[in-house]
Write a structure and sequence with these properties.
The protein is α/β, with parallel strands linked by helices and 168 residues long. 33% of the residues lie in helices and 24% in strands.
Length: 168
């Protein structure tokens, strides 16, 4: 069974966490909710609570096939946790799938060398990706090597479909 880390932190975009969580479980993947702290309740922008299974300091990239990073304002909070950043960086170094939607690519810009890579995101962080060296594409889903990115909740079907295709 393929194993996926789904990052969680306060102020996530509720649907961008819940849609991939349930779709990936529906496909039969083992999905762990990874927070800064273990067994902690994090709240989305709309107040939906989600409890983490594990802390990022307690996991190893070698145990996962992919990491999914939802948007909202949570990626900015995720970037403040060294263990979470180290995990995403190690996933990239191992060329494992990193999927991020909306503001999620902030984590990619903070942890991965994206010079010359094609990415997309919510339009307000476009400049951050470009300044980190990426080529920005305004498309519903962009895949460059092991990195999958999408713009917003409207792209969730294409985003999760691409994650499932790449993992299988």
């Amino acid at each position: 069974m393929k194993k996926i880390a789904l990052l969680v932190e306060n102020m996530y975009e509720d649907i961008e966490l819940l849609w991939p969580l349930y779709r990936l479980k529906e496909e039969g993947f083992d999905v762990d909710l990874i927070g800064t702290e273990k067994d902690t309740v994090y709240k989305g922008k709309n107040g939906v609570p989600t409890k983490s299974d594990l802390a990022s300091s307690d996991i190893n990239a070698g145990d996962y096939d992919a990491v999914v990073i939802p948007g909202g304002y949570s990626p900015d909070k995720m970037r403040a946790c060294k263990a979470t950043k180290d995990f995403v960086k190690d996933m990239n170094n191992k060329e494992k799938i990193i999927a991020a939607i909306c503001h999620g690519p902030w984590m990619i810009a903070s942890t991965c060398d994206i010079k010359g890579k094609e990415l997309t995101s919510y339009h307000t962080i476009k400049d951050d990706l470009i300044n980190a060296g990426a080529t920005y594409k305004d498309e519903e889903v962009v895949v460059d090597g092991n990195i999958i990115t999408s713009r917003s909740p409207e792209d969730l079907i294409a985003f999760t479909t691409k994650i499932i295709e790449k993992i299988k």
